[in-house]
Design a protein that fits this description.
486 residues; alpha/beta; Rossmann fold; 2 domains; 5-stranded parallel β-sheet; disordered C terminus
Length: 486
Amino acid sequence: MPSLRPRTLGDLKVSGYRSRTVKEEVRANLVRKLRAGEHLFPGIKGYDDSVVPQLVNALLAQHDFILLGLRGQAKSRILRQLVAFLDEEIPILASSEVNDDPLHPISKHGRTLVTECGDGAPIEWVPRDHRFVEKLATPDVTIADVIGDVDPIKAARGGHILADELTIHFGLLPRANRGIFTINELPDLAGKIQVGLFNILQEGDVQVKGYPIRLALDVLMVFTANPEDYTARGKIITPLKDRIGAEIRTHYPEALEIGMDITRQESWITRDHVCVEVPDFVAETVERLAFLARQDKRIDQRSGVSQRVPITVTENMVSNAERRALELGEERVVPRIGDLYAAIPAITGKIELEYEGELHGSDKIARELIQAAATNTFRDRAGGADVEEIVEYFEQGGALQIGEDASAAACVQGFETVPGLLKLVESVGLAPTNASAGTRAAACELALEALVGERRINRNRTGSYGRARHDGPNGKGFQGFDPFAT
Protein backbone atom coordinates (compact mmCIF):
# COMPACT_ATOMS: atom_id res chain seq x y z
CA MET A 1 0.00 0.00 0.00
CA PRO A 2 1.22 3.56 -0.74
CA SER A 3 0.97 4.45 2.96
CA LEU A 4 3.62 1.81 3.76
CA ARG A 5 6.22 3.32 1.45
CA PRO A 6 9.27 4.76 3.23
CA ARG A 7 8.90 8.48 3.80
CA THR A 8 12.33 9.23 5.25
CA LEU A 9 15.87 8.22 4.43
CA GLY A 10 16.00 6.12 7.59
CA ASP A 11 12.83 4.22 6.64
CA LEU A 12 14.30 3.64 3.18
CA LYS A 13 17.45 2.11 4.62
CA VAL A 14 15.44 -0.13 6.94
CA SER A 15 13.32 -1.34 3.98
CA GLY A 16 16.43 -2.82 2.37
CA TYR A 17 16.25 -0.58 -0.70
CA ARG A 18 19.30 -0.83 -2.95
CA SER A 19 20.23 1.71 -5.57
CA ARG A 20 20.81 0.71 -9.19
CA THR A 21 21.40 2.70 -12.36
CA VAL A 22 18.58 3.33 -14.78
CA LYS A 23 20.25 1.04 -17.33
CA GLU A 24 20.46 -1.74 -14.75
CA GLU A 25 16.82 -1.12 -13.91
CA VAL A 26 15.77 -1.28 -17.58
CA ARG A 27 17.82 -4.42 -18.12
CA ALA A 28 16.32 -6.17 -15.08
CA ASN A 29 12.75 -5.38 -16.12
CA LEU A 30 13.49 -6.43 -19.70
CA VAL A 31 14.89 -9.76 -18.50
CA ARG A 32 11.74 -10.29 -16.43
CA LYS A 33 9.48 -9.54 -19.42
CA LEU A 34 11.47 -11.85 -21.69
CA ARG A 35 11.23 -14.70 -19.21
CA ALA A 36 7.49 -14.12 -18.84
CA GLY A 37 7.01 -14.11 -22.61
CA GLU A 38 5.46 -10.62 -22.57
CA HIS A 39 4.98 -8.62 -25.76
CA LEU A 40 7.68 -5.97 -25.43
CA PHE A 41 6.37 -3.25 -27.73
CA PRO A 42 2.54 -3.41 -28.00
CA GLY A 43 1.12 -1.93 -31.18
CA ILE A 44 4.45 -1.98 -33.01
CA LYS A 45 3.97 -4.24 -36.03
CA GLY A 46 6.39 -5.57 -38.60
CA TYR A 47 9.51 -5.25 -36.44
CA ASP A 48 9.47 -8.56 -34.58
CA ASP A 49 12.27 -10.07 -36.66
CA SER A 50 14.25 -6.93 -37.42
CA VAL A 51 14.11 -3.87 -35.16
CA VAL A 52 12.90 -5.41 -31.88
CA PRO A 53 15.77 -7.94 -31.54
CA GLN A 54 18.28 -5.11 -32.04
CA LEU A 55 16.49 -2.97 -29.45
CA VAL A 56 16.55 -5.84 -26.97
CA ASN A 57 20.27 -6.38 -27.58
CA ALA A 58 21.02 -2.70 -26.99
CA LEU A 59 19.02 -2.60 -23.74
CA LEU A 60 20.53 -5.84 -22.45
CA ALA A 61 23.97 -4.40 -23.19
CA GLN A 62 23.00 -1.19 -21.32
CA HIS A 63 23.76 0.93 -24.37
CA ASP A 64 22.48 4.30 -25.44
CA PHE A 65 21.13 4.03 -28.99
CA ILE A 66 19.69 5.88 -31.98
CA LEU A 67 16.78 4.88 -34.20
CA LEU A 68 17.60 5.78 -37.78
CA GLY A 69 14.77 5.76 -40.31
CA LEU A 70 12.47 7.69 -42.59
CA ARG A 71 9.38 9.50 -41.38
CA GLY A 72 6.36 7.53 -40.28
CA GLN A 73 8.26 4.45 -39.09
CA ALA A 74 7.10 4.51 -35.43
CA LYS A 75 10.43 5.76 -34.06
CA SER A 76 8.90 8.14 -31.50
CA ARG A 77 6.33 5.58 -30.44
CA ILE A 78 9.06 3.03 -29.74
CA LEU A 79 10.97 5.51 -27.59
CA ARG A 80 7.88 6.39 -25.55
CA GLN A 81 7.22 2.72 -24.88
CA LEU A 82 10.62 2.42 -23.19
CA VAL A 83 8.91 3.84 -20.10
CA ALA A 84 7.38 0.38 -19.57
CA PHE A 85 10.87 -0.95 -18.75
CA LEU A 86 11.24 1.39 -15.76
CA ASP A 87 10.16 0.54 -12.23
CA GLU A 88 6.68 1.78 -11.37
CA GLU A 89 8.12 4.23 -8.81
CA ILE A 90 11.49 5.23 -7.40
CA PRO A 91 12.37 7.22 -4.26
CA ILE A 92 14.02 10.64 -4.50
CA LEU A 93 15.01 13.26 -1.96
CA ALA A 94 12.16 15.67 -1.46
CA SER A 95 12.12 18.76 -3.72
CA SER A 96 15.08 17.53 -5.75
CA GLU A 97 15.13 18.99 -9.26
CA VAL A 98 17.40 16.22 -10.52
CA ASN A 99 15.71 13.19 -8.91
CA ASP A 100 18.48 12.72 -6.35
CA ASP A 101 18.96 9.13 -5.20
CA PRO A 102 18.48 9.32 -1.42
CA LEU A 103 21.45 6.98 -0.92
CA HIS A 104 23.72 8.74 -3.41
CA PRO A 105 22.67 12.38 -3.99
CA ILE A 106 24.47 14.20 -6.82
CA SER A 107 23.25 17.77 -6.35
CA LYS A 108 24.26 20.25 -3.70
CA HIS A 109 20.64 20.50 -2.59
CA GLY A 110 20.50 16.73 -2.05
CA ARG A 111 23.82 16.52 -0.21
CA THR A 112 22.87 19.47 2.02
CA LEU A 113 19.50 17.91 2.84
CA VAL A 114 21.09 14.61 3.90
CA THR A 115 23.75 16.41 5.92
CA GLU A 116 21.25 18.57 7.77
CA CYS A 117 18.48 16.01 8.31
CA GLY A 118 20.36 12.72 8.38
CA ASP A 119 18.02 9.71 8.40
CA GLY A 120 15.11 12.11 8.79
CA ALA A 121 15.61 13.51 5.29
CA PRO A 122 12.17 13.41 3.60
CA ILE A 123 11.56 11.06 0.67
CA GLU A 124 9.21 11.45 -2.30
CA TRP A 125 8.20 8.80 -4.84
CA VAL A 126 8.30 9.52 -8.56
CA PRO A 127 6.17 7.47 -11.00
CA ARG A 128 7.89 6.14 -14.11
CA ASP A 129 5.89 8.35 -16.48
CA HIS A 130 7.62 11.37 -14.89
CA ARG A 131 11.04 9.92 -15.63
CA PHE A 132 10.76 10.22 -19.40
CA VAL A 133 11.93 13.47 -20.98
CA GLU A 134 11.50 14.04 -24.70
CA LYS A 135 12.90 16.93 -26.70
CA LEU A 136 12.42 17.74 -30.37
CA ALA A 137 15.72 19.04 -31.70
CA THR A 138 15.48 22.36 -33.51
CA PRO A 139 18.25 24.75 -34.55
CA ASP A 140 17.23 27.24 -31.85
CA VAL A 141 17.75 24.81 -28.94
CA THR A 142 20.40 26.17 -26.59
CA ILE A 143 22.81 24.75 -24.03
CA ALA A 144 20.62 26.36 -21.38
CA ASP A 145 17.62 24.35 -22.60
CA VAL A 146 19.48 21.04 -22.46
CA ILE A 147 22.08 21.46 -19.71
CA GLY A 148 21.10 24.56 -17.73
CA ASP A 149 22.10 28.13 -17.01
CA VAL A 150 22.99 30.41 -14.14
CA ASP A 151 19.88 32.01 -12.68
CA PRO A 152 20.66 35.48 -11.24
CA ILE A 153 17.29 35.59 -9.51
CA LYS A 154 18.12 32.39 -7.59
CA ALA A 155 21.45 33.91 -6.64
CA ALA A 156 19.87 37.14 -5.42
CA ARG A 157 17.10 35.47 -3.44
CA GLY A 158 19.42 32.92 -1.83
CA GLY A 159 22.35 35.23 -1.30
CA HIS A 160 24.64 32.93 -3.30
CA ILE A 161 27.59 33.84 -5.49
CA LEU A 162 27.07 33.05 -9.17
CA ALA A 163 29.62 30.22 -9.00
CA ASP A 164 27.48 28.39 -6.44
CA GLU A 165 25.69 25.32 -7.79
CA LEU A 166 22.50 26.46 -6.05
CA THR A 167 22.21 29.31 -8.56
CA ILE A 168 21.80 26.94 -11.51
CA HIS A 169 18.52 26.50 -13.30
CA PHE A 170 18.85 22.91 -14.52
CA GLY A 171 17.95 22.05 -18.10
CA LEU A 172 16.10 19.05 -19.45
CA LEU A 173 18.98 16.61 -19.27
CA PRO A 174 19.80 16.99 -15.53
CA ARG A 175 16.07 16.87 -14.79
CA ALA A 176 15.98 13.51 -16.58
CA ASN A 177 18.48 12.06 -14.11
CA ARG A 178 17.62 8.45 -13.21
CA GLY A 179 15.33 8.31 -16.23
CA ILE A 180 15.22 8.24 -20.02
CA PHE A 181 16.24 11.27 -22.06
CA THR A 182 15.24 11.27 -25.74
CA ILE A 183 16.00 13.67 -28.56
CA ASN A 184 14.02 13.45 -31.77
CA GLU A 185 15.68 14.51 -35.05
CA LEU A 186 19.16 14.66 -33.54
CA PRO A 187 20.92 16.11 -36.64
CA ASP A 188 18.87 19.30 -36.25
CA LEU A 189 20.63 19.96 -32.95
CA ALA A 190 23.42 22.53 -33.21
CA GLY A 191 26.95 21.14 -33.16
CA LYS A 192 27.90 22.80 -29.88
CA ILE A 193 24.90 21.19 -28.17
CA GLN A 194 25.93 17.81 -29.53
CA VAL A 195 29.41 18.39 -28.09
CA GLY A 196 27.82 18.87 -24.68
CA LEU A 197 25.92 15.62 -25.06
CA PHE A 198 28.89 13.46 -25.98
CA ASN A 199 30.87 14.79 -23.02
CA ILE A 200 28.02 13.78 -20.73
CA LEU A 201 27.80 10.37 -22.38
CA GLN A 202 31.48 9.73 -21.84
CA GLU A 203 32.55 11.66 -18.74
CA GLY A 204 29.47 12.97 -16.94
CA ASP A 205 30.93 16.50 -16.85
CA VAL A 206 28.64 19.52 -17.04
CA GLN A 207 29.86 23.10 -17.41
CA VAL A 208 27.51 26.03 -17.05
CA LYS A 209 28.74 29.50 -17.97
CA GLY A 210 32.31 28.35 -17.50
CA TYR A 211 31.76 27.01 -13.97
CA PRO A 212 32.88 23.38 -13.74
CA ILE A 213 30.15 21.38 -12.06
CA ARG A 214 30.45 17.63 -12.04
CA LEU A 215 27.09 15.91 -12.05
CA ALA A 216 27.29 12.14 -12.31
CA LEU A 217 24.07 11.94 -14.27
CA ASP A 218 22.42 8.56 -14.57
CA VAL A 219 20.40 8.53 -17.80
CA LEU A 220 19.54 6.25 -20.67
CA MET A 221 19.96 8.44 -23.74
CA VAL A 222 18.12 7.56 -26.93
CA PHE A 223 17.81 9.47 -30.18
CA THR A 224 16.02 9.42 -33.52
CA ALA A 225 17.16 10.70 -36.88
CA ASN A 226 16.16 10.62 -40.53
CA PRO A 227 18.97 9.49 -42.89
CA GLU A 228 18.13 12.39 -45.17
CA ASP A 229 18.93 14.85 -42.37
CA TYR A 230 22.61 14.04 -42.58
CA THR A 231 22.84 16.13 -45.74
CA ALA A 232 19.64 18.14 -45.92
CA ARG A 233 19.54 19.94 -42.58
CA GLY A 234 22.46 18.91 -40.45
CA LYS A 235 24.63 16.08 -39.31
CA ILE A 236 25.51 14.08 -36.25
CA ILE A 237 29.01 15.02 -35.19
CA THR A 238 31.47 12.13 -35.27
CA PRO A 239 32.47 12.12 -31.57
CA LEU A 240 28.82 11.90 -30.52
CA LYS A 241 28.01 9.20 -33.05
CA ASP A 242 31.02 7.22 -31.80
CA ARG A 243 29.68 7.30 -28.23
CA ILE A 244 26.19 6.07 -29.11
CA GLY A 245 26.17 2.36 -28.45
CA ALA A 246 23.90 1.14 -31.26
CA GLU A 247 22.46 2.50 -34.51
CA ILE A 248 19.19 0.69 -35.21
CA ARG A 249 17.54 1.04 -38.62
CA THR A 250 13.76 1.15 -38.86
CA HIS A 251 11.80 0.45 -42.05
CA TYR A 252 8.38 0.58 -43.65
CA PRO A 253 6.13 -2.52 -43.61
CA GLU A 254 7.66 -5.20 -45.79
CA ALA A 255 4.41 -7.07 -46.38
CA LEU A 256 1.06 -5.72 -47.52
CA GLU A 257 -0.78 -7.54 -44.73
CA ILE A 258 1.40 -5.90 -42.07
CA GLY A 259 0.79 -2.48 -43.57
CA MET A 260 -2.95 -3.12 -43.55
CA ASP A 261 -2.78 -4.18 -39.90
CA ILE A 262 -0.97 -0.96 -38.99
CA THR A 263 -3.41 1.21 -40.94
CA ARG A 264 -6.39 -0.59 -39.43
CA GLN A 265 -4.94 -0.11 -35.95
CA GLU A 266 -4.13 3.57 -36.35
CA SER A 267 -7.02 4.82 -38.48
CA TRP A 268 -10.02 6.49 -36.90
CA ILE A 269 -12.90 4.83 -38.69
CA THR A 270 -15.41 4.37 -35.85
CA ARG A 271 -17.86 7.23 -36.24
CA ASP A 272 -20.73 8.36 -34.04
CA HIS A 273 -24.30 7.32 -34.93
CA VAL A 274 -23.33 5.41 -38.10
CA CYS A 275 -22.02 1.94 -38.83
CA VAL A 276 -18.79 2.02 -40.83
CA GLU A 277 -17.87 -0.97 -42.97
CA VAL A 278 -14.59 -0.85 -44.89
CA PRO A 279 -14.46 -3.78 -47.35
CA ASP A 280 -11.15 -5.61 -47.16
CA PHE A 281 -10.47 -5.07 -50.85
CA VAL A 282 -10.88 -1.31 -50.37
CA ALA A 283 -8.46 -1.39 -47.41
CA GLU A 284 -6.04 -3.39 -49.56
CA THR A 285 -6.27 -0.82 -52.36
CA VAL A 286 -5.41 1.96 -49.92
CA GLU A 287 -2.36 0.06 -48.66
CA ARG A 288 -1.21 -0.83 -52.17
CA LEU A 289 -1.28 2.87 -52.97
CA ALA A 290 1.41 3.50 -50.33
CA PHE A 291 3.49 0.52 -51.47
CA LEU A 292 3.37 1.73 -55.09
CA ALA A 293 4.29 5.26 -54.02
CA ARG A 294 7.41 3.89 -52.29
CA GLN A 295 8.52 2.45 -55.63
CA ASP A 296 7.60 5.41 -57.85
CA LYS A 297 10.68 7.13 -59.25
CA ARG A 298 8.79 10.41 -59.54
CA ILE A 299 8.52 10.53 -55.74
CA ASP A 300 11.54 11.40 -53.60
CA GLN A 301 12.31 8.13 -51.83
CA ARG A 302 14.94 9.79 -49.65
CA SER A 303 12.13 11.59 -47.86
CA GLY A 304 10.04 8.45 -47.84
CA VAL A 305 6.32 7.81 -48.07
CA SER A 306 5.11 7.79 -44.50
CA GLN A 307 2.77 5.17 -43.09
CA ARG A 308 0.60 8.17 -42.29
CA VAL A 309 -0.36 8.23 -46.00
CA PRO A 310 -2.62 5.15 -45.92
CA ILE A 311 -3.83 6.11 -42.44
CA THR A 312 -5.00 9.60 -43.42
CA VAL A 313 -6.27 8.39 -46.79
CA THR A 314 -8.43 5.83 -44.99
CA GLU A 315 -9.80 8.47 -42.63
CA ASN A 316 -10.54 10.91 -45.48
CA MET A 317 -12.09 8.16 -47.58
CA VAL A 318 -14.36 7.11 -44.71
CA SER A 319 -15.26 10.74 -44.07
CA ASN A 320 -16.34 11.22 -47.69
CA ALA A 321 -18.49 8.10 -47.48
CA GLU A 322 -19.87 9.30 -44.13
CA ARG A 323 -20.81 12.67 -45.61
CA ARG A 324 -22.66 10.92 -48.44
CA ALA A 325 -24.46 8.58 -46.05
CA LEU A 326 -25.56 11.47 -43.82
CA GLU A 327 -26.89 13.44 -46.78
CA LEU A 328 -28.77 10.42 -48.14
CA GLY A 329 -29.99 9.15 -44.79
CA GLU A 330 -28.12 5.83 -45.06
CA GLU A 331 -27.35 4.00 -41.84
CA ARG A 332 -24.33 2.11 -43.17
CA VAL A 333 -21.15 3.87 -44.33
CA VAL A 334 -19.26 1.87 -46.96
CA PRO A 335 -16.42 3.66 -48.77
CA ARG A 336 -15.99 2.93 -52.46
CA ILE A 337 -13.11 3.44 -54.89
CA GLY A 338 -14.58 6.80 -55.85
CA ASP A 339 -14.09 7.93 -52.26
CA LEU A 340 -10.37 7.32 -52.66
CA TYR A 341 -10.24 10.11 -55.23
CA ALA A 342 -11.88 12.41 -52.69
CA ALA A 343 -8.92 11.65 -50.39
CA ILE A 344 -6.30 12.93 -52.85
CA PRO A 345 -5.43 15.92 -50.60
CA ALA A 346 -4.25 13.40 -47.98
CA ILE A 347 -1.80 12.02 -50.57
CA THR A 348 -0.46 15.15 -52.23
CA GLY A 349 0.37 16.78 -48.91
CA LYS A 350 2.58 13.90 -47.83
CA ILE A 351 4.76 13.15 -50.85
CA GLU A 352 7.88 14.98 -51.97
CA LEU A 353 8.41 14.92 -55.73
CA GLU A 354 11.53 14.55 -57.83
CA TYR A 355 12.01 16.81 -60.86
CA GLU A 356 10.08 14.44 -63.13
CA GLY A 357 7.29 14.29 -60.60
CA GLU A 358 7.08 18.08 -60.47
CA LEU A 359 6.55 18.06 -64.23
CA HIS A 360 3.63 15.66 -63.88
CA GLY A 361 2.11 17.31 -60.82
CA SER A 362 1.18 15.73 -57.50
CA ASP A 363 -2.54 15.54 -58.28
CA LYS A 364 -1.94 13.54 -61.49
CA ILE A 365 0.49 11.22 -59.74
CA ALA A 366 -1.98 10.61 -56.91
CA ARG A 367 -4.72 9.69 -59.39
CA GLU A 368 -2.40 7.32 -61.20
CA LEU A 369 -1.40 5.68 -57.93
CA ILE A 370 -5.05 5.12 -56.98
CA GLN A 371 -5.84 3.62 -60.37
CA ALA A 372 -2.76 1.38 -60.30
CA ALA A 373 -3.55 0.24 -56.75
CA ALA A 374 -7.12 -0.65 -57.71
CA THR A 375 -5.92 -2.51 -60.78
CA ASN A 376 -3.36 -4.52 -58.83
CA THR A 377 -5.89 -5.36 -56.11
CA PHE A 378 -8.39 -6.65 -58.65
CA ARG A 379 -5.73 -8.65 -60.47
CA ASP A 380 -4.59 -10.20 -57.22
CA ARG A 381 -8.11 -11.20 -56.22
CA ALA A 382 -9.71 -11.89 -59.58
CA GLY A 383 -6.85 -12.40 -62.01
CA GLY A 384 -7.92 -14.47 -64.99
CA ALA A 385 -11.63 -13.81 -64.51
CA ASP A 386 -13.64 -13.43 -67.69
CA VAL A 387 -14.43 -9.76 -68.20
CA GLU A 388 -15.13 -9.85 -71.94
CA GLU A 389 -18.89 -9.52 -71.52
CA ILE A 390 -18.38 -6.33 -69.54
CA VAL A 391 -15.88 -4.86 -72.00
CA GLU A 392 -18.08 -5.80 -74.95
CA TYR A 393 -21.00 -3.90 -73.45
CA PHE A 394 -19.01 -0.68 -73.48
CA GLU A 395 -17.37 -1.41 -76.83
CA GLN A 396 -20.81 -1.65 -78.37
CA GLY A 397 -21.70 1.82 -77.15
CA GLY A 398 -23.05 1.06 -73.71
CA ALA A 399 -22.53 3.72 -71.08
CA LEU A 400 -22.87 4.02 -67.32
CA GLN A 401 -23.12 7.12 -65.16
CA ILE A 402 -22.37 6.65 -61.44
CA GLY A 403 -22.35 9.83 -59.42
CA GLU A 404 -19.97 10.21 -56.48
CA ASP A 405 -22.89 11.05 -54.21
CA ALA A 406 -25.22 8.29 -55.44
CA SER A 407 -26.61 5.92 -52.82
CA ALA A 408 -25.38 2.36 -52.59
CA ALA A 409 -28.74 1.03 -53.77
CA ALA A 410 -28.73 3.37 -56.78
CA CYS A 411 -25.19 2.29 -57.66
CA VAL A 412 -26.10 -1.39 -57.53
CA GLN A 413 -29.14 -0.69 -59.70
CA GLY A 414 -26.88 1.04 -62.22
CA PHE A 415 -24.29 -1.75 -62.17
CA GLU A 416 -27.03 -4.28 -62.89
CA THR A 417 -27.35 -2.75 -66.36
CA VAL A 418 -23.80 -3.88 -67.20
CA PRO A 419 -24.03 -7.54 -68.25
CA GLY A 420 -21.95 -9.85 -66.09
CA LEU A 421 -20.62 -7.21 -63.68
CA LEU A 422 -22.44 -8.26 -60.51
CA LYS A 423 -21.97 -11.91 -61.42
CA LEU A 424 -18.23 -11.30 -61.74
CA VAL A 425 -17.76 -9.71 -58.30
CA GLU A 426 -19.85 -12.44 -56.72
CA SER A 427 -17.97 -15.27 -58.42
CA VAL A 428 -14.51 -14.02 -57.37
CA GLY A 429 -15.63 -13.47 -53.77
CA LEU A 430 -15.40 -9.67 -53.70
CA ALA A 431 -19.09 -9.29 -52.86
CA PRO A 432 -21.05 -12.45 -52.03
CA THR A 433 -24.77 -12.43 -52.73
CA ASN A 434 -25.48 -11.75 -49.03
CA ALA A 435 -23.14 -8.72 -48.94
CA SER A 436 -24.54 -5.26 -48.24
CA ALA A 437 -25.45 -2.97 -51.11
CA GLY A 438 -22.49 -0.77 -50.20
CA THR A 439 -20.02 -3.65 -50.45
CA ARG A 440 -21.50 -4.80 -53.78
CA ALA A 441 -21.27 -1.27 -55.15
CA ALA A 442 -17.65 -0.94 -53.94
CA ALA A 443 -16.74 -4.28 -55.54
CA CYS A 444 -18.25 -3.24 -58.87
CA GLU A 445 -16.35 0.05 -58.78
CA LEU A 446 -13.12 -1.85 -58.14
CA ALA A 447 -13.74 -4.12 -61.15
CA LEU A 448 -14.52 -1.18 -63.43
CA GLU A 449 -11.57 0.81 -62.12
CA ALA A 450 -9.29 -2.13 -62.94
CA LEU A 451 -10.64 -2.23 -66.49
CA VAL A 452 -10.01 1.51 -66.75
CA GLY A 453 -6.47 0.94 -65.49
CA GLU A 454 -5.95 -1.73 -68.16
CA ARG A 455 -7.44 0.68 -70.72
CA ARG A 456 -10.18 -1.74 -71.65
CA ILE A 457 -12.84 0.86 -70.88
CA ASN A 458 -12.83 4.55 -70.09
CA ARG A 459 -13.98 6.73 -67.19
CA ASN A 460 -14.00 10.46 -66.75
CA ARG A 461 -13.80 12.37 -63.50
CA THR A 462 -17.56 12.70 -63.16
CA GLY A 463 -17.99 8.92 -62.91
CA SER A 464 -19.10 8.18 -66.47
CA TYR A 465 -17.91 4.88 -67.96
CA GLY A 466 -17.77 4.27 -71.69
CA ARG A 467 -15.87 2.87 -74.65
CA ALA A 468 -12.09 3.22 -74.76
CA ARG A 469 -10.50 4.73 -77.85
CA HIS A 470 -7.39 3.15 -79.31
CA ASP A 471 -7.15 5.19 -82.49
CA GLY A 472 -5.21 8.30 -81.62
CA PRO A 473 -3.59 10.71 -84.04
CA ASN A 474 -0.92 8.14 -84.85
CA GLY A 475 -3.43 5.35 -85.32
CA LYS A 476 -2.56 3.58 -82.11
CA GLY A 477 -2.48 4.00 -78.38
CA PHE A 478 -5.06 4.96 -75.77
CA GLN A 479 -6.28 8.47 -76.39
CA GLY A 480 -8.46 10.77 -74.34
CA PHE A 481 -11.79 10.24 -72.68
CA ASP A 482 -14.35 9.14 -75.23
CA PRO A 483 -17.26 9.41 -75.40
CA PHE A 484 -17.22 11.37 -72.12
CA ALA A 485 -14.48 13.96 -72.66
CA THR A 486 -13.87 16.21 -69.68
